[in-house]
C-alpha cells in the first residue's frame, strides 16, 4: 500500500484528505447503495466522472484499503473493485449523509434504501453491511 503525506495527524484531516471531494463519496455511494463494482459501471453514473479522475480516485481508495481490486471471474481483462471491511465501516457515515441529503433534497436518493432506513435504521445498516460482505466474499 502506498503511503500518503498528510498535512497533520488530526483524524478529521485524515478523513478530509480521503473523502474531501464529491467523487469519493459518489464512488462509495455507487458501491454501497447501487451495487457497482467495475470501471465502466462507475463511468455510467449520472455525474459523468472522467476516466482520469475515476482512475485517480479508485487508486486512492485502493491505497487506503477501502476497496480491493480483483480480476473478474467472467472476464479476465476486467477488474472489479470490492469494498473491504474498512470501507464497510463507513456505511453508517454514508447513511447519515444520505438521510441529511434526502431531508434537504427530497426529490433525490435511493428510495428503497431510504424506506429501509426510515423503517429501522439499525437493521438497514446491518443488512447493508452484510450484503456488502456477502457480495465481496462471493468473489473470494
From TrEMBL:
<dbReference type="InterPro" id="IPR036388">
    <property type="entry name" value="WH-like_DNA-bd_sf"/>
</dbReference>
<feature type="domain" description="HTH hxlR-type">
    <location>
        <begin position="10"/>
        <end position="109"/>
    </location>
</feature>
<protein>
    <submittedName>
        <fullName>Transcriptional regulator, HxlR family</fullName>
    </submittedName>
</protein>
<keyword id="KW-0238">DNA-binding</keyword>
<dbReference type="InterPro" id="IPR036390">
    <property type="entry name" value="WH_DNA-bd_sf"/>
</dbReference>
<dbReference type="InterPro" id="IPR002577">
    <property type="entry name" value="HTH_HxlR"/>
</dbReference>
<dbReference type="GO" id="GO:0003677">
    <property type="term" value="F:DNA binding"/>
</dbReference>
<keyword id="KW-0805">Transcription regulation</keyword>
<dbReference type="Pfam" id="PF01638">
    <property type="entry name" value="HxlR"/>
</dbReference>
<keyword id="KW-0804">Transcription</keyword>
Amino acid at each position: 500500500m502506498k503511503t500518503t503525506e498528510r498535512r497533520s495527524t488530526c483524524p478529521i484531516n485524515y478523513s478530509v484528505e480521503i473523502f474531501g471531494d464529491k467523487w469519493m463519496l459518489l464512488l462509495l455511494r455507487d458501491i454501497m447503495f447501487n451495487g457497482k463494482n467495475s470501471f465502466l459501471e462507475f463511468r455510467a453514473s449520472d455525474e459523468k466522472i472522467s476516466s482520469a479522475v475515476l482512475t485517480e480516485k479508485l487508486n486512492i481508495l485502493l491505497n487506503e484499503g477501502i476497496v480491493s481490486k480483483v480480476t473478474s471471474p467472467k472476464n479476465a481483462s476486467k477488474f472489479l473493485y470490492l469494498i473491504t471491511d474498512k470501507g464497510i465501516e463507513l456505511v453508517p457515515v454514508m447513511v447519515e449523509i444520505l438521510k441529511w441529503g434526502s431531508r434537504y433534497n427530497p426529490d433525490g436518493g435511493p428510495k428503497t434504501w431510504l424506506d429501509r432506513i426510515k423503517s429501522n435504521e439499525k437493521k438497514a445498516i446491518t443488512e447493508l453491511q452484510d450484503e456488502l460482505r456477502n457480495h465481496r466474499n462471493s468473489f473470494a
